[in-house]
Amino acid sequence: MDISSIASAALNSSSASGVSKTNVTGEFDSLLSSAIDLIEETNTLAANAEAEEIKFALGESDNTHDLSIAMQKAQVSLQYTVAIKNALLDAYKEIMNMQV
Predict the structure, then answer these.
(1) Whole-angstrom Cα distance, residue 32 to residue 98?
(2) Residue 84 near residue 38 (C-beta atoms within 8 A)
(3) Residue 53 has what DSSP assignment?
(4) How many CB atoms lie within 10 A of CB 15?
(5) pTM reported for the whole predicted model
(6) Per-residue b/e over 53-82, b at no fewer than 16 CB within 10 Å?
(7) Max Cα–Cα distance, the chain, nearest Å
(8) Helix (H) and strand (E) counts for the chain?
(9) d(CA 83, CA 70)
(10) How far apart are alpha carbons 14 and 3 in whole angstroms?
(11) Residues sharing a CB contact under 8 Å with residue 81, sequence separation 6 or more, in sequence order
């Protein structure tokens, strides 16, 4: 059984229970766009931290406060992203282990 047949079976069962296919698709699209936004924000914060680090290393900035703030923001954002990824993988594994 491949993923598309599982997804169509899930959509068929959800439409039988009163949940429309567009509602499920809309919710998935919303979740996917939120995940992509989170990854893009994490990438932006990491790039900002790297830019601050390069400025400090080249002597263009002597403000260690800005450097430490940028690095801490990037670290917290990365930890948050990894935590969400782990939660999604755990949920996926739990779904895969369900008896049908």
Answers:
(1) 23
(2) yes
(3) H
(4) 14
(5) 0.66
(6) eebbeeeeeeeeeebeebbebbeebeeebe
(7) 65
(8) 3, 0
(9) 20
(10) 16
(11) 38, 39, 42
Distance between CA atoms of residues 67 and 49, nearest Å: 7
Spatial separation of the C-alpha atoms in residues 77 and 69, rounded to whole Å: 12
CB 45 within 8 A of CB 73: yes
Segment 31-66, tens digit of pLDDT: 889 889 999 999 999 999 999 999 999 999 888 999
Angle, alpha carbons 22-39-42 (nearest 5°): 150
The residue type of 29 is D
